[in-house]
Amino acid sequence: MNKGILYAVLSYLAWGFLPLYWRLFTAIPAWEILAHRIVWSFVFVAILITVSKQWQRLKSVASSRRSLAAVVLCSILISSNWFLFIWAVNNNHVIETSLGYYMNPLISVLFAVVFLKERLSPGQWLSIVLAGAGVLIMALQYGHIPWVAISLAVSFALYGLAKKIANLDVLLGLSGETIVALPAALVYLIYVQSHGVGIFASLPPFSIVLLLLAGVATAMPLFWFAKAMQLLPYSLVGFIQYIAPTTSLLLAIFLFNEPFSQIELVSFSFIWLALIIYSFVTFRKSKAGVIPIRQVDVQKNAIASNK
User: Fold this and answer.
1) Rounded-to-10 torsion of CA 146, 149, 155, 157
2) Of 174, 194, 197, residue with least CA distance to 27
3) How far apart are the C-alpha atoms of 1 and 24, rounded to whole Å?
4) What's the rounded Cα separation, in Å, for the pair 274 and 252?
5) 248-287 pLDDT, tens digit each
6) Where are the domains positioned within the chain?
7) What sign results for the dihedral spanned by CA atoms 75, 76, 81, 86?
């Protein structure tokens, strides 16, 4: 149990502090950062696949049309999510990314109802209504919806559903997703470099080394998370997951100096109250052994899509 908690805390702290890493590359366009993240994530997981001798298992994924289609969908969703997160961090929207991470489990539960026909308790419905009220308050105050937060939360939840369909472990899943996205990433990088608009070649050596570590920064938290899921009850991981958005929120306010108004505090308070109710209901259900397996899978995969 203690080792599982350590893995869970490490994974969510890593995700929570990830904005610090991407802020090192504010001079690089988000599309170029995304392309490098895909390429170096592929390199890192390819090494792991080789060491663990799982290339044959990975090839078998292509033999199933259902699994292959799910991997392609996962690749599109996670690439879109990565781009939006990188863009948001480097354009002073870290608070909205935090809001999206707080909303993620609630959106995942809602999708379980819509797509998997799960039935929610009154407490779970109340948490979804409160979260919706929090978003509505922010939208009414600023005249537009918090599209960054909603897009991140929805893409996480859709990714979770697609991962459930693919039914692959973390390493094979991430490998397949990066392989699908790799050709587009390579073509983009070759194009920008050949036309003299790429930033990578002009970076100082230290920044180049840091960017090459994007694969490690992407994959390691996922592996820590996978270990935690093997060793801990899902309900406990559900509580620990809020370390990530809380860390990002604190970074946004106290380090990046993003404005955090009273209206945003009220909006976040609705989300926090919704999560307290949701977590309490989920914990009671897990203790009683009545959480549907499909709902757990969707939430678990959505958590694993993080960042």
Assistant:
1) -110
2) 197
3) 35
4) 22
5) 999 999 999 999 989 889 999 999 999 889 888 877 776 6
6) 2-304
7) positive
CA distance 163 to 70: 7
Q: How far apart are CA 207 and CA 59, in angstroms?
A: 35
CB 176 within 8 A of CB 57: no
Distance between CA atoms of residues 144 and 49, nearest Å: 44
Total-model pTM: 0.86
pLDDT digits (tens, 9 = 90+) for 190-220: 999 888 888 888 889 999 999 999 999 998 9
**Under 8 Å between Cβ of 135 and 146:** yes
Largest CA distance in the chain: 61
How far apart CA 42 and CA 77 sit, in angstroms, is 16
SS (H, E, C) 232-276: CCHHHHHHHCCHHHHHHHHHHHHHCCCCCCHHHHHHHHHHHHHHH
Contact of 160 with 294, CB cutoff 8 Å: no
